[in-house]
Amino acid sequence: MPLPLEGIKIIDFTGVQAGPACTQLLAWFGADVLKVERPGTGDVTRRQLRDIPDLDALYFTMLNSNKRSIELNTKTPEGKKILEQLIREADVMVENFAPGALDRMGFTWEHIHELNPRLIFGSVKGFAEGHPYSDLKVYENVAQCAGGAASTTGFWDGPPTVSAAALGDSNTGMHLAIGILTALLHREKTGEGQKVAVSMQDAVLNLCRVKLRDQERLERVGYLEEYPQYPKTPFGDAVPRGGNAGGGGQPGWILKCKGWESDPNAYIYFTIQEQNWAQTCEAIGHPDWKTDPNYATAKARQPHIFDIFADIEKWLADKTKFEAVDILRKFEVPCAPVLSMKEIAHDPALRALGSVVEVEQEKRGTYLTVGSPIKFSSFTPTIKGAPLLGEHTDEVLAHLGYAAADIAALRGKQVI
Ligand code: COA
């Protein structure tokens, strides 16, 4: 059966993480993704954080699977001509260069649109066009700071903190993928291509919407009842860092389990769900809390919520995180073990689901990567290896009509 995006040709003029994550997702779903890379060097991540000398780093292979690669110097007249040929026959082109870099090469949106009015042009920048910082180069953590994530993450007595999750990079790529697919559907109706732009700041902010909610609540009522600061510590005029407090109306915290003294991940996340309070009391051996006026309602519990969490930790003291979750799940307590990356890498359930997959990579052998987080009923994306630098240069040029002698000449002039 053909994959859903089979026949969609994508020029992947991207690097590092945000752009490659977007095009990789589309490649998994069947698009023909051609990575255009600088001759001799290619995507900078091929060489970053290498674990095996001279081989493409995992940083590259884990973001560029299922793609092809052409080496092409798009600053030379011959290289520009080839890129123009590729644009004429593509459906989508994606880029995430520094602001102005593509324009300097001569590939403005107007020129691209003129070359192929049906083409969807996807672009990632740190800040949106028209923003006062739109000239800035941006990496992951810069975006997390500008999008509201850092100021609201961490503990109240510590500095702003960035998340390990790639909210600025891969998250922006996912937003762009949604935009590109929407534009493809729009093209089916109108025949017209369009530019789809996503800024990393906006993509981070989109995931921080509950913190914007909290800012508005804070300005109206002067406090945030679900934050650990309430009611003892006064609030300032901006949303504070709330540690591990739950972001919704249900209090929660990360609690110690058996072995926490030596295992940095011997913890669970425990949520006190209001509608499940009676069952929660049963689960943790405190049936008396169901009717005790100091415990029976969320309002009564709030002033001493951390004493309650401390009591629950006493109950957890002789249980591993897995044993605790196995008990709590029977009482419908929303909870999970804090899983280390080692546990995730070796988790048989994630392997069986295809969420963690082993991939065969030329020269490297087998390595572990993430599979599609989106599960479809009619197909299962197959994750393949990433291309070697320029692996498909000759094949692509031959398709464009270049004879072997022309290709050799281009190679001699270092265009490819
Ligand atoms: N042939 C010839 N030149 C090429 C080329 C090719 N195939 N591919 C890239 N180049 C050139 C660019 O045109 C640019 O040249 P210029 O500076 O002379 O105009 C140069 O290589 C470097 O471009 P860029 O990839 O943007 O690298 P950078 O090191 O200057 O900046 C970032 C890297 C990530 C900071 C920057 O690209 C950026 O801010 N991107 C937008 C936001 C983003 O995606 N951030 C990263 C998230 S993972």
Automatic annotation (TrEMBL):
GO molecular function per UniProt: formyl-CoA transferase activity
Keyword Transferase found: yes
InterPro entries linked: CoA-transferase_III_domain, CoA-Trfase_fam_III, CoA-Trfase_III_dom3_sf, CoA-Trfase_III_dom_1_sf, Formyl_CoA_transfer
Catalytic machinery residues: D169
Keyword Transferase: yes
Keywords: Transferase
Sequence positions that bind substrate: G248, G249, Q250
Pathway where this protein functions: Metabolic intermediate degradation; oxalate degradation; CO(2) and formate from oxalate: step 1/2
Pfam families linked to this entry: CoA_transf_3
EC number: 2.8.3.16
Reaction catalysed by this enzyme: formyl-CoA + oxalate = oxalyl-CoA + formate
GO terms classed as biological process: oxalate catabolic process
Database matches in NCBIfam families: oxalate_frc, PRK05398.1
PANTHER family in UniProt: SUCCINATE--HYDROXYMETHYLGLUTARATE COA-TRANSFERASE
Family from the record: Belongs to the CoA-transferase III family. Frc subfamily.
Quaternary structure and partners: Homodimer.
Protein name: Formyl-CoA:oxalate CoA-transferase
Protein source organism: Starkeya nomas
Lineage: Bacteria, Pseudomonadati, Pseudomonadota, Alphaproteobacteria, Hyphomicrobiales
Gene (name only): frc_1
